[in-house]
Amino acid sequence: MSAAEGPLVVGVDTSTQSTKALVVDAATGQVVASGQAPHTVSSGAGRESDPRQWWDALCRALDQCGDAAHEAAAVSIGGQQHGLVTLDERGEPVRPALLWNDVRSAPQARRLVEELGGPKAWAERTGSVPGPSFTVTKWAWLAENEPEAVRATRAVRLPHDYLTERLTGQGTTDRGDVSGTGWWASGTESYDEETLAHVGLDPALLPRVVRPGEVAGTVRDSHDLPFSKGTLVAPGTGDNAAAALGLGLRPGTPVLSLGTSGTVYAVSKRRPADPTGTVAGFADAHGDWLPLACTLNCTLAVDRVATLLGLDREAVEPTTAVTLLPYLDGERTPNLPGASGLLHGLRHDTTGGQLLQAAYDGAVHSLLGALDLVLDEDADRSVPLLLIGGGARGRAWQQTVRRLSGRPVQVPQAKELVALGAAAQAAGLLTGEDPAAVARRWNTAAGPVLEAVERDEATLARIAGVLSDAAPLLERSTDS
């Protein structure tokens, strides 16, 4: 381990597929140790994971960090949003967690929106119009389909809450993650009693919302991790809010994140309330707002197309005639939870490389369609688009985003921005700084800037046309 200039902190990213841990020098931002361990997600109609896998993966990831983890003075957990974790009286999972990309609650989402005043009322009250990704719809689904699980539930948590509570023994969450539940009112920054009563969820089952900069607790005696008793535990937050912290994001700078899901977001001083439901009005982790649009199908869907074609993911060829909408898991933006993938324009001379490029185009089109809605009206459109996530270093992803956005694209060199953001939050507990300012001091957003190219309006128009014409087909679920 390199000699550290300042105290060490641990930042964690518990994502859909794995848990990653970084030990970071709070003074310089240098990553002095890291670890990662996978977990599994069910296939089929639902997307579920046993929360105990997340804890086991955290233990393994920190074990890989060696002695450095023992020296940490503070820790913070960043995690996948929206997941519904139900715990019994012993703090054990009642059933596997329902994850963000489990869209079985689409009927409940539609009903909740109708029953509680419609889209505009939801946007004004909670900042978002809930879709099937939101936790409140999952609770409604569980109450209808597994009432015995609801009766056995004594605590309801989000994924990052679950791990934080196992560290501290206290049920806590933060404004960034709780703003994605659908039962937190963004105007008053408190739990929404009307919504909770409507879905039959006792507010006593929910965690305390810890304020930015507040200590969530300290590491308790009984645990399997290398931390000392009394190590400070930060509030943690959802993955997108953590990545925004990790970038030291200032208002008006757009981010496009390419992971299992795709997201576009920007920090704003204005509380969002989009009645169309395209933009989720999330809070960020340090007192501002994080308007965000999310797609369910991004790198995983494109990689699946590459695998089906027997091609390397970079083996793309230019295309002008074929359109592929890679909605392999249904879709959230546009709101088509029952959709499947759709291919249009196939000819005898269409190549595999063209089909693959069409998959990239279809995935990026969904994200860029929401970008202008995410940004404030007075945002500077010449500011580079920050490209992050697992796909950000892929040349095909970079070139597709440049061509379809017409904007300069900056690719930060720092990796694991969710875990770095969590580490910055932990460092802020020790130094009293705004975690975003900590990340800017660490220079996490530094990276090459790819110049803007002319926007490919023809491809954008072609995809939009196919999407519009195929709407009735896409709205029809293919599930048996």
Main traits of this protein?
24 strands, 7-stranded mixed beta sheet, globular, single chain, 35% helix, FGGY_C, 17 helices, alpha/beta, transferase, 480 residues
3D architecture notes:
Residues 9-246 form the Carbohydrate kinase FGGY N-terminal domain. This protein is α/β, with parallel strands linked by helices and 480 residues long. Helix content is 35%, strand content 19%. Strands 1, 2, 3, 5, 13, 14 and 15 form a seven-stranded mixed beta sheet that branches. A seven-stranded mixed beta sheet has the order 18-19-17-16-22-23-24, sandwiched between helices. Strands 4-7 form a two-stranded antiparallel sheet. A hairpin with a 3-residue loop joins strand 1 and strand 2 (18-25). Helix 11 (299-309) runs antiparallel to helix 12 and helix 14 (417-431) packs across helix 15. The longest helix has 23 residues, at 352-374. The chain is globular, with a radius of gyration of 21 Å. The termini are far apart. The model has no long low-confidence stretch (mean pLDDT 94).
SSE topology sketch:
Layout: E1 8-14, E2 18-25, E3 31-38, E4 48-49, H1 51-64, H2 67-70, E5 72-79, E6 85-87, E7 97-98, H3 106-115, H4 119-126, H5 135-145, H6 147-152, E8 155-157, H7 159-168, E9 172-174, H8 175-178, E10 184-185, E11 190-191, H9 193-199, E12 208-210, E13 217-218, E14 232-233, E15 237-238, H10 239-246, E16 255-258, E17 262-265, E18 280-283, E19 289-295, H11 299-309, E20 323-325, E21 342-344, H12 352-374, E22 385-388, H13 395-405, E23 409-410, H14 417-431, H15 435-442, E24 449-450, H16 457-469, H17 471-474
Parallel strand pairs: 1-5, 5-14, 5-15, 9-12, 16-22, 22-23
Antiparallel strand pairs: 1-2, 2-3, 4-7, 6-8, 10-11, 13-14, 16-17, 17-19, 18-19, 20-21, 23-24
